[in-house]
Amino acid sequence: MKKTILYLTSLIVLSGCSFFQENSPAQSSKQSSEIQAVSSEASQERTNESQVDQTNEGPVFQEEELSSTNLPQSSLDESVNYQELRDAVNQYYDQEVDSEVKELNQEPIAEDDLENLQYVFDNNDQYKDLGVQVDQVKIPLGGTDNYVVRLIVADSYAATEAKVEGADILLLNESFAQTAPDRLVLLEYFDQEAGTIIPMHLSTSNQTIFYNQVEEDKLNQ
């Protein structure tokens, strides 16, 4: 199934680097604690595993948190070479993304916009059971730091889709509406069993920089 983003009245087909076949502080804190607790248990189980290849060190897109969250870092299947993925993403970003979009994403996101977005996810009936956490991270793209909205859903992609069909597109569109259509958004899902965060989308409303086709394929099997 080809994913699409509906932004306002536009129908925009996702294309890009598909590399694979008033805020509620108490609620947000609870969601973060639940993720961190499961992550800690999974980390203990992995202490005796062999060292990961150096090309796969760090979070997938080398994203840098701008606030302390103690969340697990993002990861993908062991067969994926992160550096090759980063090179492909950077090449696409350099060649296909307009300079105006690049300039916008070099500016930090207003905290009010992030708080408003978190409020919507915490209180809107369509989203409030998904446990979405909102923050901003810095991601190096095109040789510069870019400020990106990060959405972390408190469950796997499959489990979230079982609750709300097309939740990923709804979450992306809400983020574009609350920030800007050309603001980069990184949408990730928390794999409770593995204790890791799995990237699903890195996109603006018009362009997908990265899409995790593997997760959708698993859902459709």
From TrEMBL:
Pfam families: LPAM_1 (PF08139). InterPro entries: Membr_lipoprot_lipid_attach_CS (IPR012640). Residues 1-20 form the signal peptide. Keywords: Signal. Residues 23-76 are annotated as: Disordered. Transmembrane segments: none annotated. Residues 23-42, 67-76 have a biased composition (Polar residues). This is Lipoprotein. The lineage of its organism: Bacteria, Bacillati, Bacillota, Bacilli, Lactobacillales.
